[in-house]
Amino acid sequence: MYDSMDAARISGYFKRKSILITGSTGFLGKILVEKILRVQPDASKIYLLVRGADASSAQQRVQEEVINTELFGLLMEKHGNGFQQLIQEKVVAVAGDIIYENLGLEAPVLKALAEEMDVIVNIAATTNFYERYDVSLDVNVMGVKHLCQFAKQCPRLKMFMHVSTAYVCGDVRSREVLILEKPIESGESLREGRYLDIDAELRLIKEAKKELQNSPVDEAACKTERKAMKELGLQRARHFGWPNTYVFTKAMGEMLLGQLRGAMPMVIVRPSIITSVRADPLPGWMQGVRTIDTLIIGYAKQNLSCFLGDLSVVVDVIPGDMVVNAMMAAVAAHSEEKGQAVVPVYHVTSSLRNPATYEVLYESGRRHFYKNPRVGENGEVIPTKEMRFFPTIARLRLYLMLTFKLPLEILHLVNLLLCGLFSRLYNDLNRKYKFVMHLLDVYGPFAFFNGCFDDINMERLRQAMAMKTPEDHMFNFDPKTIDWDDYFTRIHIPGVLKYLHK
């Protein structure tokens, strides 16, 4: 596989390479694009597949949503007046979409792209836990299939990297378990005796949509279809043992890769919860609210009095720049390994080597807000309050019922007595209550996740890294080097407040 790795080998690998990246407008995709450009300006081309009506609109999206972000400030400073020239020479926006065969590209464009490609990195995904089943399958499963079919048309291809999630392992609340870095087998289900047939799931969706579309097409019908597709996703995920539509379809995507890869050089990367940039290019930078950030934002606003979770439970988090460093090292390490008996899987996680608990996160937050109290519109200091944590979903449900549902039912009774005077207020509050209870159902399993991610493959790659120079440390992906208390207090929480808390 590899004897030794260092910055020179990793950055040198991307020299004169053409790289196709999907999901570049997302958090991880942006970090990868910036890193490649910064450490290897002699890369041949970086092709970014983005949705757009044409090449011009795709280019505009890349410029506005990727290049113009604060993340590229260090690269801009490094190249000065030559920055835009670098971007024009190296970054190519491609108007397409992985949900379509041939990536939605015309045959000549597809052929030209295939002939030039050395590396494909698939980051594109819909990460919504409660996504429509048809949408989630289109992106997380069929998107993988279409990219894999394209990859087989690339004569120069040296690596196909697929970014999945560590949580394809499913719900392990009931037991402490070491989750191994192993591929998902074809037809594998987390419920004994059930065989997961992807084609059957596609047929199921087709039939369900056919039944729903028998009614007249109007706003109500669209809303009904949307809800039915979301419920179908959760139902099918739980039928096979996964807690939500996102991790279920990501597992199917991995399964499909195993079926289609042939002799293609391939690596699967499974990060856990990805958090803000820790070191470079911009500490604290992030995009998109993660589960743990809901806690931080709610605490900052002081409108979150309670939270679901056991403070002693380990929350497996890993900074985004470390994930990208690991990805680049793995690409360089496994390039051109054709005909692998088993696809290498990498858990980019922290729970085994350097676990962080919810308590560390909470205490870091308290300390941050005591030192940096929020100030209201009138200039008065907003006092920092303690938050109540519930160690079980049942206890939180009971608390919410007594605190909110009971007064809500009293309001309902008063509303009936007053001939609907408070109907709008009651309906609004009742809708919000139902939404909170739904969130408990969907996100609850992650609050009590007891699994520990084995990372023996990742550790072997880390041990091969020669950390002798400052450049080598730019590719650090060792969670043991993280002081979680310092990271949360000094970097992540300020980052959440700056970039996410509007």
From TrEMBL:
<dbReference type="GO" id="GO:0102965">
    <property type="term" value="F:alcohol-forming long-chain fatty acyl-CoA reductase activity"/>
</dbReference>
<keyword id="KW-0560">Oxidoreductase</keyword>
<dbReference type="Pfam" id="PF03015">
    <property type="entry name" value="Sterile"/>
</dbReference>
<dbReference type="InterPro" id="IPR013120">
    <property type="entry name" value="FAR_NAD-bd"/>
</dbReference>
<dbReference type="InterPro" id="IPR033640">
    <property type="entry name" value="FAR_C"/>
</dbReference>
<keyword id="KW-0443">Lipid metabolism</keyword>
<comment type="function">
    <text>Catalyzes the reduction of fatty acyl-CoA to fatty alcohols.</text>
</comment>
<protein>
    <recommendedName>
        <fullName>Fatty acyl-CoA reductase</fullName>
        <ecNumber>1.2.1.84</ecNumber>
    </recommendedName>
</protein>
<dbReference type="Pfam" id="PF07993">
    <property type="entry name" value="NAD_binding_4"/>
</dbReference>
<dbReference type="InterPro" id="IPR026055">
    <property type="entry name" value="FAR"/>
</dbReference>
<feature type="domain" description="Thioester reductase (TE)">
    <location>
        <begin position="21"/>
        <end position="327"/>
    </location>
</feature>
<keyword id="KW-0444">Lipid biosynthesis</keyword>
<dbReference type="InterPro" id="IPR036291">
    <property type="entry name" value="NAD(P)-bd_dom_sf"/>
</dbReference>
<keyword id="KW-0521">NADP</keyword>
<comment type="similarity">
    <text>Belongs to the fatty acyl-CoA reductase family.</text>
</comment>
<feature type="domain" description="Fatty acyl-CoA reductase C-terminal">
    <location>
        <begin position="405"/>
        <end position="502"/>
    </location>
</feature>
<dbReference type="GO" id="GO:0006629">
    <property type="term" value="P:lipid metabolic process"/>
</dbReference>
